[in-house]
Design brief:
Blueprint lengths: L9 E8 L2 H15 L3 H23 L1 E8 L2 H15 L9 E2 L2 E2 L22
Antiparallel strand pairs: 1-2, 3-4
Length: 123
């Protein structure tokens, strides 16, 4: 078990979701509101409701977690974990998230990303 004495305190965890289609509809809705196009707003609202009903589980399941550590040592441990994963060695911690093996990577620079809209594909 990792503990505070090792400097692994987590400051914040932000989750990203597989929802680019929903984000796009919300942008369209915002544009319709700006244009005061009330008929289009109603149509987009129905499309959003349909998406949410059809993909609720997908939208509620995080696909990425951005972890900010309180101290630099936390990121060093994460990097070591990633190196173990890259060499196909089993993690000594055996950690999983939502049933999936953890894959840890250094994040891009914050100025390069709109964090809430971060979306990864299998490519």
């Amino acid at each position: 078990m990792l503990n505070q004495e090792k400097g692994l305190e987590i400051a914040i965890i932000s989750f990203a979701y597989n929802n680019p289609d929903l984000i796009e509809k919300l942008k369209q809705r915002g544009a319709a509101i700006t244009a005061a196009n009330f008929n289009k707003i109603d149509l987009i609202d129905k499309e959003i409701d349909t998406l949410i009903n059809e993909k609720k589980e997908q939208y509620m399941t995080p696909v990425t977690a951005f972890i900010t550590f309180e101290k630099p040592f936390g990121s060093h441990v994460a990097s070591a974990y990633h190196e173990l994963h890259q060499t196909n060695l089993k993690s000594p911690w055996g950690q999983k998230l939502l049933g999936f093996d953890l894959k840890l990577y250094d994040a891009s620079e914050p100025t390069d990303i709109i964090w809430e809209n971060r979306h990864f594909t299998e490519e």
